[in-house]
User: Fold this.
Amino acid sequence: MFSINSGSSSSTLRDKLMKYKKIIFHSGVFHADEVYATAYLMILYDVFGLPFPKWERKNVISPEMTEDNGYLVYDIGGGRFDHHFPEEQKQRREDGTPYAAFGLIVREFHEGFLTQEEYEAFDSSWVKGIDLNDNTGCGNPAAFEIKCMNPTWDSPNNNTDIRVFTAISKAKDVLEYIIEHIYADCHARECAETAVDVADGCVYLEHYAPIGKYIAPKDGIAFFGFPSNREIGKYSITSVKWKGVNKALFPKQFRGLNAKTPNFAQINFNTGLSFVHPNGFMATFDNKELAKKFMKDYKDQFEIPAPIEDSNEEAQE
Assistant:
């Protein structure tokens, strides 16, 4: 699923992984941070074509279980991949969010697999929430799902070692899809930068790519278009978000348009519109040419929402 570019950083990461002969994390009830940390490491070893080290769950770490001796120990033992320390001693991100085992492992073993942009996207969208939950119990859907894979108190089979293997396998599947999407989202920058069909506030693509966050900061650009993935031959246009709101919305008189709308045939004939979302942020046209004509003819009728100046959400699709 993933490919590794040749280079010194990839070679360095491969060498780092090769030195470990055994992986250790805590036994008993398992949590999302060590489960996802293990799943992430499994992906890395797969990518580099390396056998995954033997792993064991223990609650006592003996003095010889060091990295120099080929042990990778996390979420236990008080080493650099543990996070069970007083608050003032915890390792934290720049925004103050404490690291747990998952974040510590990804931070150490990402260069050579993820670019800095990909790493930051992965951390902010997935890793950080799991770390925060493990440190604070604040609640996180992914962490709750892993928690529920532990045996219940009255389970006739309370063997957590079997259950944790199932949890790690599931987490690995999930991470592969997440990382695949992060790769694609970050690589969409090139699509935005090389787009040449730009007119009337819209970037027109020949295939879908999530370019919204890359074009949103640009003055005069509020939409991007692409062939519909629902109806062959049709063309969709969607508004991008900037500072918490869509930069522009389709005219109110067309919002909610669909095949059951009174006078649909006449509206469709006049505009090429076949669907407009009730909230006005996207529309579908019979083809690209009609979409471009509509955007030109109605460009002065689009609603321009006021940005939320203190919004932390700057740009997205």
The CA atoms of residues 191 and 209 lie 7 Å apart. The longest strand covers residues 223-227. The first helix runs from residue 8 to 18. The chain is about 40% helix and 15% strand.
